[in-house]
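Reopening this ticket.

The earlier resolution said the output was attached, but the attachment link was broken on my side. Pasting everything inline this time so it's all in one place.
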Amino acid sequence: MEGYDKYAFEPFAVTVDLAVFTLRAGMLHVLLVERGQEPYAGRWALPGGFVLPHESAETAAGRELAEETGLSDVEKLHLEQLRTYSGPERDPRMRVVSVAFTALVPDAPEARGGGDAAHAAWLPYASYGPLAFDHDQILEDAHERIGAKLEYSDLATHFCPPEFTLGELRQVYETVWGTALDPANFRRKVLATPGFVEPLAGAARLTGGRGKPAALYRAGANAALHPPLLRPSVPEGDLS
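Inline output:
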């Protein structure tokens, strides 16, 4: 536009960072990459990178996830924007503003490195050392976001396979929240919302032990859990 000076302000870069969670062996895992370049070479970090001039942040998030981890089928992920991180000193190279996303993977494949990531791996949540940049804060915020959304949304079903038992669904809540839940109360609260989960007529699966097979369910059309299933203020049991 006439009279507009695009050089009047100092330029800065825009990046994307992704906090990707899954459940493995009954534990919450997060996808991390080992940085292959400075700054923070050799440190664990969230997958991510710079947004290219022709890209949206969402497009860049999918590209970086595929390049650095091999998770190419981004459409099947529950991917949502978390927030923007814009601290002036968050990147030692230059002023960088990051758009952070969180994603859920129900059946995570093995990760691999690529791009500027030397290695990628699924690690148990909070089992690693300090992350590069401000990624510890991003990951903490993402964990709090998914924990809060479990209370009132169908987010937990995105951690489950297409057909699941109520016990498997309960395990999602217990793993993310870090507390045990009473099975009977959980069942009552989940089934109190019509259309939240739908039973599969005649379908059941053995889940171990001597009990009868557990009934199978699938996610229903109702994405809101009402009344919400609130996190216990005092743990109901010890998961350690």
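Reporter confirms the inline version is readable. Residues 135-149 form the longest helix (15 residues). Residues 234-240 have pLDDT under 50 and may be disordered.
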